[in-house]
């Protein structure tokens, strides 16, 4: 039910950062561009999870701002949860700080919500709806 | 074969940081102390992986130094690999920067090696031997 969907890693250069994973023998997806976030990305399946390398394609990208402030490294942890609406309702009722008020719908129709790092030990925590729901 | 064994997350307070995971309905292990690293930790199973919350118990802990420099957040990503000795040999031959020269043996006899963040897109990447080997 619960598992780690992916880890988003902010990098200056996908071409440079993907090397270690290629050397480990992992498969790297083709590059994909997400205009709305002004990033390009590749996905690296690892067991039931994926690593997502994120490189900004303009300075207006949130990933560009992250790199300027924090440098390369983990940007977010994405967990699959069984019933996102129920989870979000429960977290709100318990005073957890969420990044937006409503569940958002992203590319491919996946539904997601971010928990603010101040409520999750410094980690930007994405919750996504389980694929098996 | 390959999967994410665990994510190490540096926190100031396990008591505070574990709250979000309890609210999500995840199980938290009892606290454990690792004297050698001067940390206490809890493990949170998530699918085939685990989240590891790490809190320093003294200022000499590497986690205390990490918190002072970077603040709370992801400390390392640990990947299970099928044949650690072969992987380490290959990475060395390809010039990947490793944190130590030899594979180390940790608590419970698990064998591990760290790849330096400069060779892994800013991420401290731990490689551990697969349990099924």
Can you describe this structure in just a few lines?
The structure is a homodimer of 133-residue chains. With 133 residues, chain A is α+β, with helices and mostly antiparallel strands. Helix content of chain A is 21%, strand content 36%.
Q: Mind explaining what this structure looks like?
A:
- Two copies of one chain form a homodimer.
- The longest helix of chain A has 10 residues, at 84-93.
- Chain A has a single domain (3-129), classed as 2,3-Dihydroxybiphenyl 1,2-Dioxygenase, domain 1 (Roll).
- The first copy, chain A, is globular, with a radius of gyration of 15 Å.
- In chain A, strands 2-3-4-1-5-8-7-6 form an eight-stranded mixed β-sheet.
- The first copy, chain A, has four helices and eight strands.
- With 133 residues, the first copy, chain A, is α+β, with helices and mostly antiparallel strands.
- The termini of chain A are close together.
- The mean pLDDT of chain A is 92.
- Chains A and B meet through strand 1, helix 2, strand 4, strand 5 and helix 4 of A and strand 1, helix 2, strand 4, strand 5 and helix 4 of B.
Q: What are the salient characteristics of this protein?
A:
homodimer; 133 residues; alpha+beta; 2,3-Dihydroxybiphenyl 1,2-Dioxygenase, domain 1; 36% strand
Topology:
Two copies of one chain form a homodimer.
Chain A lengths: L2 E8 L3 H4 L1 H5 L8 E3 L4 E8 L2 E8 L5 H9 L2 E9 L2 H10 L10 E2 L5 E5 L9 E5 L4
Parallel strand pairs in A: 1-4, 5-8
Antiparallel strand pairs in A: 1-5, 2-3, 3-4, 6-7, 7-8
